């Protein structure tokens, strides 16, 4: 804080005084007091520390959902009440039916700003966000994304070849491979080419500066927040935007890490946009996301255009949202297949049959339709997205008084059954993706088991439909749902099919205990060896 200007420090102190008054007032307006939940562990930290320090994402969420039902109350810093919801009707109401009525919290927006600048994920609800989304939508249509299939397959073929040449040629009996880092490098190259027609070179060169800047960024900047940082963030609600924009300059581990990565992305982004804008004047055919964006922006009415800063920021959100999420999903899927070898054999047999069909009809590779017809593979992807959702919580705030309906009534503190929850303006709501994805009422009594057969046997019969894909909350829902969900699903199908066709995955002999760490996004680490960063070692053998 020492190198912050004096005026900022004075302002922050005054704001802090204001905050204390407001906190006192807000505690007297406790509209969700009748909702049950665990007691706060501490006056200052509430239940925040417990949630952020869960050994594996979901440990507490699943416990509370079992005890209290699909909605419960937690306490954030200084006892601020937070409504947790995992009920499908409530999630649909907040994310979908209410449009922009439940904006992101100041904390979420400020962190999004720190990490991505003025990108779509930062964009405040309403006019600004819809302007971003309108310019970005043309880059994410189904035909546009289908055209990326050859790129996805080329990248996965490169990964397979590298594993064969660099690792397995020396150990034909197979060896342990840290699959998540290889997959993150592959998906980084994919997003580079698909989104910017840019070669990150991550598979070829591990020294690459963008790759290094990004590696373990989530764990370094988000995992296990310090008490001072949690307290500091509690004040953000009361600070004006201009002050919040300076938060990124605070010289501590969390903020420094985000700031240096963003700075690097903006440097590359500026260069790319300049090159592309010049090239697009003569060649209108480029299909990468950034070119589509530049074209859409150029043809937009001046009032709705994205500014230079907004355009530059999209590169960092697309890289951040678009690669490790998919890499981790494929990683968890390979892990589950290693734990379920019979199912893995079924997927491989199904792929081999389809390969024979493709050869017989004289085609060179799988089409989208071929991939989509792989029933066991599709089921494994859906089940992994359900079971190991990479984004596990989303924060929202009621912008006006409202009533949230529940599909599954809960018991209130006074023992009454309630099927709706009135919320006051300003109420913080945590949308619990991880818990909804394990709700027995939706997924069945075996919701806590990884069982892709539930899709094959068509056992999923949701009463309320939510989400962008497969009735899952994994890609969120509604106006701010994941714009890249289709991109991710096609990429996962393409890469996973190639890996399973070429390799057998088993758990390593020493069977390290893998935990799902809460690092803003959920990723794998080896229990007791968290200092090594995200890691999923699997025994890989060529087939
Ligand atoms: C398994 C993979 C993925 C998961 C689990 C995932 C999940 C999500 C979630 C939960 C959100 C909502 C975040 C919020 O409300 O704050 C989101 C938004 C977003 N995602 Fe994804 N995502 C994935 C892949 C991708 C890919 C591949 C791309 C781009 C190519 C992408 C781009 C975005 C963008 C730009 C947003 C912001 C949308 C907006 O605010 O309108 N995502 N994603």
Q: Which terms would index this structure?
A:
metal-binding; binds protoporphyrin IX containing FE; three-stranded antiparallel beta sheet; alpha+beta; Cytochrome p450; globular; four-stranded mixed beta sheet; 12% strand; 543 residues; iron; monooxygenase; oxidoreductase
Give a summary of the structure in a few sentences.
With 543 residues, the chain is an alpha+beta fold.
SSE arrangement:
Layout: H1 6-28, H2 48-52, H3 59-68, E1 71-75, E2 81-85, H4 88-97, H5 106-116, H6 127-136, H7 142-146, H8 149-168, E3 175-178, H9 179-196, H10 209-214, H11 217-222, H12 227-234, H13 241-244, H14 253-282, H15 289-298, H16 308-339, H17 341-360, H18 368-372, H19 375-387, E4 393-397, E5 402-411, E6 417-423, E7 428-432, H20 433-436, H21 440-443, H22 453-456, H23 485-502, E8 503-506, E9 514-519, E10 521-526, E11 537-542
Parallel strand pairs: 2-7
Antiparallel strand pairs: 1-2, 3-11, 4-7, 5-6, 8-11, 9-10
Bound molecules: protoporphyrin IX containing FE (HEM).
Protoporphyrin IX containing FE binds at residues 120-121, 133, 317-318, 321-322, 325-326, 329, 390-391, 394, 474-476, 480, 482-484, 487-488.
What does this structure look like?
- With 543 residues, this protein is of the alpha+beta class.
- It has one domain: Cytochrome P450 (Cytochrome p450), CATH 1.10.630.10.
- Helix content is 51%, strand content 12%.
- The strands form 4 sheets. It has a 4-stranded mixed beta sheet with strand order 1-2-7-4.
- A hairpin with a 5-residue loop joins strand 5 (402-411) and strand 6.
- The protein is globular, with a radius of gyration of 24 Å.
- The mean pLDDT is 90.
- It binds protoporphyrin IX containing FE.
- Protoporphyrin IX containing FE binds at residues 120-121, 133, 317-318, 321-322, 325-326, 329, 390-391, 394, 474-476, 480, 482-484, 487-488.
- Protoporphyrin IX containing FE is lined by residues 120-121, 133, 317-318, 321-322, 325-326, 329, 390-391, 394, 474-476, 480, 482-484, 487-488.
């Amino acid at each position: 804080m020492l190198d912050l200007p004096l005026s900022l420090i004075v302002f922050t102190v005054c704001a802090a005084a204001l905050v204390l008054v407001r906190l006192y007032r807000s505690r007297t307006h406790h509209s969700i007091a009748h909702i049950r939940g665990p007691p706060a562990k501490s006056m200052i930290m509430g239940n925040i520390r417990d949630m952020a320090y869960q050994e594996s994402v979901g440990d507490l969420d699943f416990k509370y959902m079992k005890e209290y039902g699909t909605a419960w109350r937690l306490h954030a810093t200084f006892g601020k009440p937070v409504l947790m919801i995992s009920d499908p009707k409530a999630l649909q109401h907040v994310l979908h039916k209410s449009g922009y009525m439940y904006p992101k919290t100041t904390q979420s927006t400020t962190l999004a700003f720190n990490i991505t600048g003025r990108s779509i994920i930062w964009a405040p609800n309403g006019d600004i966000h819809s302007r971003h989304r309108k310019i970005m939508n043309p880059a994410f249509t189904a035909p546009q994304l289908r055209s990326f299939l050859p790129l996805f397959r080329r990248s996965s073929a490169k990964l397979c070849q590298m594993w064969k040449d660099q690792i397995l040629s020396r150990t034909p009996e197979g060896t342990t491979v840290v699959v998540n880092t290889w997959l993150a490098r592959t998906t980084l190259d994919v997003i580079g080419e698909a989104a910017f027609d840019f070669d990150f070179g991550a598979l070829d060169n591990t020294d690459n500066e963008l790759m290094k800047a990004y590696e373990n960024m989530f764990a370094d900047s988000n995992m296990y927040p310090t008490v001072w940082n949690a307290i500091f963030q509690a004040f953000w609600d009361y600070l004006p935007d201009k002050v919040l924009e300076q938060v990124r300059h605070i010289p501590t581990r969390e903020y420094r890490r985000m700031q240096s990565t963003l700075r690097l992305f903006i440097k590359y982004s500026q260069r790319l946009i300049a090159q592309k804008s010049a090239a697009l004047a003569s060649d209108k055919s480029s299909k990468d996301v950034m070119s589509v964006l530049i074209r859409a922006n150029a043809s937009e009415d001046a009032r709705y255009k994205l500014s230079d800063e907004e355009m530059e920021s999209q590169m960092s959100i697309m890289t951040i949202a678009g690669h490790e999420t998919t890499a981790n999903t494929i990683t968890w899927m390979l892990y589950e297949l290693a734990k379920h070898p019979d199912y893995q054999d079924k997927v491989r047999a199904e792929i081999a049959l389809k390969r024979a069909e493709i050869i017989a009809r004289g085609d060179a590779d799988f089409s989208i339709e071929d991939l989509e017809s792989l029933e066991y593979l599709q089921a494994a992807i859906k089940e992994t997205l359900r079971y190991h959702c990479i984004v596990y919580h989303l924060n929202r705030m009621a912008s006006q008084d409202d009533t949230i309906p529940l599909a599954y009534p809960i018991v209130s503190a006074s023992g009454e059954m309630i099927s709706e929850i009135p919320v006051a303006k300003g109420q913080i709501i945590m949308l619990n993706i991880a818990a909804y994805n394990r709700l027995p009422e939706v997924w069945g009594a075996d919701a806590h088991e990884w069982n892709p057969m539930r899709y094959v046997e068509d056992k999923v019969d949701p009463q309320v439909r939510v989400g962008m894909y497969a009735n899952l909350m994994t890609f969120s829902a509604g106006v701010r749902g994941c714009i890249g969900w289709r991109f991710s699903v096609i990429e996962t199908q393409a890469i996973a099919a190639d890996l399973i066709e070429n390799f057998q995955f088993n758990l390593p002999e020493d069977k390290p205990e893998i935990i799902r760490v809460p690092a803003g996004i959920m990723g794998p680490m080896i229990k007791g060896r968290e200092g090594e960063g995200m890691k999923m070692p699997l025994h890989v053998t060529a087939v």
